[in-house]
Write a structure and sequence with these properties.
Blueprint lengths: L1 H19 L10 E13 L19 E11 L4 E12 L3 H7 L5 E5 L2 E17 L2 E15 L3 E5 L2 E8 L3 E18 L2 E12 L2 E8 L2 E8 L2 E13 L1
Length: 234
């Protein structure tokens, strides 16, 4: 967390320095394509380890996310944006062990991950020469992947918790803002902060000794993303 705050602060300092040295205003272009990456912070239920309070604690740890995004401005202040996103999160195994403590102790856990394709309206505000802010409200299709868990049952080791639909579809939405600086006629750097949400569902099967137990999991996945990126305008 401290490392990310340091990198973000350094990024803004470089933007300010570059801006102070810029004397020529460059007209913004209508099309923009960018790629960004950064940290993904699970929040609320998704990050929760309090299984006494919530039925769907995610035990998710801070992860990474990668975005490929594009936008088109109809006017100087209104446009449309789209985004392909991917995020991956580790799992807090110690909390999961406490959650499943009735002679069922997780031996290992996989990761949470999801991807999505979103689109929606965008508002643009020119804050200064070559420096602008975009506000976006996106929605679309998400596809999430639940962790694979392996348990040590009494007298049995390495029992897998399997699911026939490991990947699950879900409606996804995202709201956020980015700050963009044009350092050349067709290039920019930007930073953004977004809040994403989806609620996929999985049907898990536990098979032991010829018997099968089914478990349905609804996971509310709330995530705050903080990214740095570069873009091309034309």
């Amino acid at each position: 967390m401290k490392k990310q705050l340091f990198i973000t602060s350094l990024f803004f300092i470089l933007l300010s320095t570059a801006y102070s040295q810029t004397t020529t205003k460059m007209e913004p272009k209508k099309f923009n394509i960018g790629v960004s990456t950064g940290l993904a912070f699970p929040v609320a239920f998704f990050n929760s380890k309090d299984y006494n309070k919530y039925q769907d604690p995610g035990f998710a740890k801070t992860g990474i996310n990668i975005n490929l995004e594009g936008s088109y401005n109809f006017t100087r202040n209104l446009g449309i944006a789209s985004k392909f996103l991917y995020s991956n999160f580790g799992v807090d195994e110690e909390s999961a062990k406490r959650y499943l403590n009735n002679n069922i102790n997780p031996a290992s856990t996989d990761h949470w991950q999801y991807w999505g394709i979103l689109a929606g309206p965008m508002g643009t505000i020119e804050l200064a020469d070559n420096f602008s802010m975009n506000v976006k409200g996106l929605m679309g299709y998400g596809r999430a992947n639940a962790p694979i868990l392996k348990f040590n049952l009494v007298g049995i080791t390495g029992v897998p918790l399997s699911t026939s639909d490991k990947w699950s579809d879900a409606f996804a939405w995202q709201f956020g803002t980015d700050f963009k600086y044009r350092f050349a006629n067709n290039f920019n750097v930007f930073t953004n902060i977004d809040y994403s949400y989806m609620k996929p569902k999985w049907n898990f099967d536990i098979s032991t000794g010829g018997s099968k137990t089914s478990v349905v999991l609804h996971q509310r996945m709330s995530v705050v993303n903080a990214n740095l990126g570069v873009g091309v305008e034309f």
